[in-house]
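Worked example

This section walks through a single chain of length 153. The input is the sequence exactly as stored; nothing has been trimmed or padded.
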Amino acid sequence: MSENDEFDDLIQEIEGKIQKDESEIYTERTREEAYNPKNAGELKEPSAVGRIRGPCGDTVQIHLRIEGDVISDTKFITDGCGPSIACGSVVTELVKGKTVEEAEKVTPEDILAVLGDLPEDNLHCPVLAINTLKAALEDYRNTRSFRNQSISE
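Given that input, the structure is written out below as tokens.
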């Protein structure tokens, strides 16, 4: 057995232990969203952007494309942990296709309902995702207000 084979075996063993530990802590849906997030990345020329740094040091950024009053597309990026990634993925799915008014009503509990709960140490993650969404919606309102003001002048 070569050194590379031994190293690969060690990595597989460590990954297996991590996945076993994660399965005891997080729901299958949380793990799925963390490892295979939907809407990850940035939009070119978004209608609005929100960026918030949470109390844990994680930063989440949400981009919205709004056509009419409907969120037609949304993406997120984060430098955070698996639960932050999962929450960013879920919140973008929850608001896509909704009106701005409907998106404003999405709560951390809505995210938790999809994920199936999180450990207490990670309960700030859905709050961070929602606060970032609210910042993006506020950016949209401010930008729209500025555009309307400029047009009428």
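What to look for: Residues 124-152 form the longest helix (29 residues).
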